[in-house]
Amino acid sequence: MLTVLAGLSEFERDLIRARTSEGRRGPWRAGREWADPSSSPRISGARRFAGATGEPLSDIARSYNVHPSTISRLTA
Asked: pTM higher than 0.85, yes or no?
């Protein structure tokens, strides 16, 4: 019975590996490259906005549709 369960878990792991590699190839096929998320224009705009205004981080986070801790990490 343990041999059967080991075989099933190995098969499931192969399926997971195939799905994740397919997900990584998707942006590459579409002509996009992987990039550092902190370099995106949206993030740099939030960083400038948080530094230039005295607005609470929760309001800035709401306007960018992210969690306030994300904005907090950007300003640190």
From this structure: no
Note down the domain range covering 65: 35-76
| Same domain as 76, residue 40 | yes
Secondary element (H or E) of residue 4: helix 2-29
Tell me which DSSP letter residue 66 carries. S
Domain count, the chain: 2
Could you tell me the pLDDT band of residue 7, with boundaries at 50, 70 and 90? very high
Q: At what angle do helices 68-75 and 41-52 cross, to 10 degrees?
A: 80
Residue 65 pLDDT level (bands cut at 50, 70, 90): confident
